[in-house]
Structure formats: structure tokens, C-alpha cells
Amino acid sequence: MNVQTPGPLALETNAGFRTGADFLAHLAATPRAVFVDGERVSDPSRHPAFRQAAKQLASLYDFAFAPENLEIMTYLEPETGLRALRCYQIPKTVADLTAKRIAAEKWAELSFGLMGRSPDHVANFFTGYAAKPSVFAKSGAQYAERVVNFYKRLRDKHLYVSYAIVPPQIDRSKSASNQSEPDLYAGVVREVEGGIIVKGGQQLATGGVFADYLHLSSIHPLQPGDENYAISVAIPMDAPGLRLLSRRAFATQATSSYDYPLTSRFDETDSFVVLDDVFVPWDHVFIYRDIELCRDQWWKTPSHTYGNHQAQARFSTKLRFLLGMAKRMNEATGNDGAPPVMVQMGELAALASIVEGMLLSQEALATVDDEGVLWPSKSMLYAVMALQGEINPRMIDIVRELTGAAMITLPSSVKDFDNPETAKDIERYYRSSQMGARDRVALMRMAWDFIGTEFGNRHQ
């Protein structure tokens, strides 16, 4: 078999900043194998299932590198003397970690916290790897060198990485090596000149449609005999043999931005990853057939804490948006001062404050290890992650109760405003004492998009 080696990624920036136009041009210039609704999509930036999310991601780069935002969104990298995205900063002090959180919040605010795997998420994992190369060196000095070099490439080129680190749900009662076929789970199948061949399936590549690279590894426990699956590698998204099977693209169901203001803009999509004899050069192999190191990459480096510190900043932003939306709905109907409503709003504020307080506690209780690397407080991080599954649905339930029947008695679409037979009724009966019918319906449409649509439920 002839193994095709992918060339260098096109249109990467070098010493300059990456603009939104650069990002979109890169998507167009690196044909990938994305499948949605039976169609192969090579350029997500132009397909209706993905183009609005691509534009939103592009706007993140424009925001980060705007002159007025440089101090918040970037830092001066001592090694190069150039600015890099704040997510790639290895924190040495609490002030560094706080700066990373503020930058994460600024990006999250642009999507109301609804794009969970923006470019700063997996970037923080690689920052954690680069912070502790000694962990990778236990398997050989070359692995530490490779992961640090790849981190520097991501940092200096302002690149976007997605990850697939969970095996398929085929037979979870058996280990990876005991599945009915040896290449069902993603793993190495052989060595070739210059690298390895990987084959199998892996999930859940959120945002992978738009990324520059895929980080392929396993966060699930592996057992003796599973060595072929104990890898950590990076693969360019246009690599031959790499296919992404996208879930239903919610954006294609969004008939208008008025009726679906969130779905139409922020659906980053999730994808199942299929690897069909994909070549990975040794330079992009960071862990190779090492079960212990495959586990330790998450827990003996700060990768998992950095990545989830960013995720909790995004989650806190989302809850603040939900709280503000509930406040605005109450104001629209004039019941903002009703005692029962005030009680429920108080609970919403309390729950959002718990998450925010525990996020800040990760910084206040951070520790510095013997190599001078700052770690967010693990106890605070994992405590709030454990509570997240209770806090989020409770807040959703409260908002649903506050709205009563308002979300399910809305006009069918914005087109009803254009029909003279219905427009008069809508203007009369859907108004409130604080706003006209069109604005109030738009507000309730946004609430429904957050709570009741497929997109909204994806975030619960």
C-alpha cells in the first residue's frame, strides 16, 4: 500500500496574527472528508450546515488580535518575543491563571457560552503537556521533545485543535483489545517508514469540522493487552483516510435567525471520527504503546485542569447569560417585582454564583509544583464539575417555570408578521407593557432556542 503523507497545512500564519479571513481561507484550502446528510463536504466554510459557525469561529480570531484586545487575549511569549493567544500561556503565578480565565470569558461571551469547544479548549491541554515534558520523557526523551515542539507550533501559528479521546460505544463490557475486531477502537496497526498507521473509530470530535488538527488519544482506562490503543498523536484534518461523520447539523433546521437566533450561529457540531489507515509521522507521536503514560498525560500534567478551567469559565458565562435572559423576560411581562418570581430569580443567581465562586477558587487555591508550574485547585475544579449536572438542569427548570406557556404559544415563525391576517392579532396579543410584539416574540424565541430546541438540549 502506498501511504500518502499530508503536506504542511496551507495558509498558516507565521510571525503575524491569524485573522478571521485567514481561518476561513484555511478551511477552503484544506479539503477534508466531512459527511452530513449523505453528502461529502470538503469546505465547511461554504456549506449551510457549518458556514455560520465557521464565521463565528473566525470572529474569535478577529476579536483576539484587534489592537484594543491584545493585552487581554494574548501574551508576549519570552521565547519568541512575539504575541501568542493567552490560552497557550503556561501559568507560573495566580495572576497568569486569572489572565487566562479572563481571556476565556471574553471569547465565551461572543457566543453566550454556547460554543463549548472553541480554539482555546484543547489548546489548554497541549499547554498542560508542554508545562510538564518530564512526564512524557519517562517513555523516552524523544516524546517530550515532540510534544513540546508541537505545542510551540500550535502556539506560534495560533492553530485550532479538536480532540477525539473516547472509544466507540460498541461493547463496553470488553477492553479495547478484546473487541470483536482489533481495529474497532482507534489504535496503531503497524509501523511504516517515517511513522505509524492508525485505524479505527473514536469520538467525540466537537468542533473537529473546523479544526486544523485532531488530537487522538484515549481518556478511558486501558488494560494490559491494550498497548496498541495507548497512543497520543496529532493528525491534520485533511489527512488522507481521516473521515468525520457529523451528527445532525442543527443549523440546517434553523429556518431564520429570528426564529433560531442561537442555533443558526453557534452549532459547532460533534463528529464521529473514522481513521482508515491514516499515516502519522513520528514527529506527531507523543505517546506510543504506553498504557501508563496514556493515563498520566491527563492527571500528572495540568492538561486536564487547564482545559477544564477554561470549560468552567465558559460554563459560568453561559449561566450568566441564562440569568440575564430570565431577568429580561420577567421585566417584559411586568412580574419582575412579584415575590414568588424574586424567590426563583434569587435561586438562579445563587446557583450561577456558586459556579463563578468555585471558578475563582480554582485560582485562589492554586498551587505551584516543584518545577514552578501553577496548577488550578483540583478540589475546586472537580467539585464544580460534579455539581454541574445538577446546577444546569435546575436552572433550566426554573426558567421554564418562569416562562409558563409563553414559549409554546409563540407564532409559528417570523413570517406570521408578514401576513396581514395574523400580523394585527400578533401585534395586539403578544406585546407586553414594556416592549412591542416583535421584540417580545424575539426574546421568547431566544429562550426557546436555549431550552427547547435540539441545539438547546445538546447543551443540557
TrEMBL record:
Enzyme Commission numbers on file: 1.14.14.9
This protein's record includes keyword Nuclease: no
Residues reported to bind FAD: 169-172, 206
Domain spans labelled HpaB/PvcC/4-BUDH C-terminal: 294-460
Molecular function per GO: 4-hydroxyphenylacetate 3-monooxygenase activity; oxidoreductase activity, acting on the CH-CH group of donors
Domain HpaB/PvcC/4-BUDH N-terminal: 19-287
Membrane-crossing segments per the record: none
Pfam families hit by this protein: HpaB, HpaB_N
Keywords annotated in UniProt: FAD, Flavoprotein, Monooxygenase, Oxidoreductase
Record-linked PANTHER family: 4-HYDROXYPHENYLACETATE 3-MONOOXYGENASE-RELATED
Name listed for the protein in its UniProt record: 4-hydroxyphenylacetate 3-monooxygenase
